[in-house]
């Protein structure tokens, strides 16, 4: 059992190439930028409509998860006023 787990762990470690790591970082950055843009647009729209701006309402309006919106909590609350 241990030997099999050890072999699987080695396979996982060997599959981490520089190319894959760079691609993963690029994809993550793109997702983060998309989420931030959605949140910014949502805040601007809510300001125009004089809606109450909270992390939950922004997440719901921007169609991102609450956890994603909470990462930008400082930005959201700063722009709530």
Task: Walk me through the structure.
This protein has one domain (20-78). 79% of the residues lie in helices and 0% in strands. The mean pLDDT is 90. The longest helix has 31 residues, at 18-48. The radius of gyration is 20 Å and the shape is elongated. By secondary structure, the chain is mainly α. Helix 2 (18-48) crosses helix 3. It has helices spanning 2-14, 18-48, 55-62, 66-71, 73-78. It is built from five helices and no strands.
Counting DSSP E segments of at least 2 residues, the number of strands comes to 0
Major sheet size, sense and barrel closure:
none
Q: Provide the low-confidence segments as ranges.
A: none
Which structural class do the helices and strands define? mainly alpha
Mean pLDDT: 90
The helical percent reads over 70%
Which geometry do the CA atoms define?
elongated
Beta-strand proportion: under 5%
Total helical elements: 5
List key phrases describing it:
81 residues, mainly alpha, 5 helices, elongated
Topology (SSEs and partners):
Elements: H1 2-14, H2 18-48, H3 55-62, H4 66-71, H5 73-78
Offer a quick outline of the entry.
This protein has 81 residues and is mainly alpha-helical.
């Amino acid at each position: 059992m241990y030997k099999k787990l050890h072999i699987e762990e080695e396979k996982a470690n060997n599959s981490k190439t520089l190319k894959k790591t760079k691609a993963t970082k690029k994809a993550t950055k793109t997702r983060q930028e998309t989420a931030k843009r959605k949140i910014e647009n949502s805040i601007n729209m809510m300001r125009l409509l004089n809606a109450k701006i909270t992390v939950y309402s922004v997440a719901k309006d921007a169609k991102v998860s609450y956890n994603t919106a909470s990462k930008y909590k400082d930005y959201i609350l700063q722009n709530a006023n």
